[in-house]
Amino acid sequence: MMAVVAAVVAVCVTAPARTAAETAVLGAAFGRTSPVGALFMRTPAGKLQNHFCTASVVDSPSGNLVLTAAHCMDGRSWRQMAFVPDYTDGKAPYGVWTISRMLVNRQWQSTGNPDDDFAFLIVRRNGSTGNLERLTGGEAIATGEPAGQLVKVAGYPDGLDGVISCQHATMAFGPTQYAFECGGFTAGTSGSPFLADVSPADGLDSVIGVLGGYEDGGTSPAVSYATRFNAQLRALYKVALEVSAGR
User: What's the pTM value of the predicted model, to 2 decimals?
Assistant: First the structure.
């Protein structure tokens, strides 16, 4: 079975409290946002191959939860994947984290609906019980956010050994998607978080979508798309929090 599939129900979940690590990291200059990292395939011997998508650490009590686009999992074995946060120039400052579980919702599994293009990954580091979020910080998640907000987006294009970033306002693309105009977001940037200042009082950003959705995120490097996080995302997040905590 390719995926761990979670049933989605209409559930309201209170986002976890902001972490001290997140405050420190997201307060730093953008472009060195360490919760964002690259997804790699690994050889049977465990060696990293080329990176192929982007993901980011999200806030969880277990500290081992990562968010990306569901289409990044298509045709690939998540058991052979690794996440490298803040990957730059061949360096892994926070280590290499393998994927131990993957969760998508049933709608994506059955129909590939672009409005369900999100996935949670539970990660671990071999030989360690370390907490990834304590190292990198973790993003809060916000759902139902309107278009028109200024967002910061960072991702890892194929063939580059570092992250690109851009800040721009989103546009509505139908009632369920965002469009984002900024050049350079080519293959490999799928899963990049859309970070918005949802609660200006705390000065921190929340992820409101990930690059994906329509046309798997778009066919032009100048225009990208993201599913507007919704009740299905919130319900899957609840399941992911429970699974990552071992419940």
Answer: 0.86
Cα(68)–Cα(209) distance, rounded to whole angstroms? 9
Instruction: Collect all residues with Cβ–Cβ distance below 8 Å to 116 and sequence separation of at least 6.
Output: 70, 104, 105, 107, 108, 227, 232
Token look-up 């979508």 returns 209
What is the chain's length? 247
One-letter amino acid for residue 220 of the chain? S
Q: Which of 237, 119, 143, 117 has the alpha carbon at shortest distance from 196? A: 143
Across the beta sheet with 140-141, the strand order is 140-141, 204-210, 193-199, 150-155, 164-169
CA nearest to 152, candidates 51, 226, 94, 66: 226
Percent share of the chain, pLDDT over 90: 56
| 5 touches 123 (CB < 8 A) | no
State residue 203's pLDDT score: 64
Q: pLDDT (tens digit, 9 = 90+) per residue, 155-179? A: 999 988 888 889 999 999 999 999 9
The two three-digit tokens of residue 110, written as one number: 């059955």
Under 8 Å between Cβ of 116 and 99: no
Helix (H, G, I), strand (E, B) or coil at 241: helix
Residue 189 CA to residue 25 CA, distance in Å, equals 21
* Residue located via tokens 């298509």: 74
Separation CA 210–CA 199 (nearest Å): 19
Structure tokens given for 236: 């899957």
91: left (phi over 0), alpha (psi -120 to 50) or beta: beta
Task: With residue 23 as reference, give the H or E element that holds it.
Answer: helix 20-26
In sequence order, the β-bridge partners of residue 105 are: 6
Contact yes or no for 207/151 (Cβ under 8 A): no
